[in-house]
Write a structure and sequence with these properties.
Layout (H helix, E strand, L loop, with lengths): L1 E5 L6 H10 L3 E2 L8 E5 L2 E5 L7 E6 L2 E8 L6 E5 L1 E5 L4
Parallel strand pairs: 2-3
Antiparallel strand pairs: 1-8, 3-4, 4-5, 5-6, 6-7
Amino acid sequence: KSIDINIDSEINLNEISTRLVQLGYEREKMVEEPGQFSIRGGILDIYTLVYDNPVRIELFGDEVDSIRFFNVESQRSVENIDDITITLSMK
């Protein structure tokens, strides 16, 4: 099981939230460690176990506007990417 998200795709935050919990992720106010996700307005942060940095997905309505890695401490963007695959959390 995995979730594929790419630029210009449309996602429903309620559905994504449910699917992330099913994959073993925990919803938090802010992501601080792998296995967590956060939703604030049109921003979805996910800290997967696969990448060194968490990913921030910004939405414009239901459309994915940007996907980028960010530094968990500074909250600053590190690198823009075109797509991400979110896999099972093994916490």
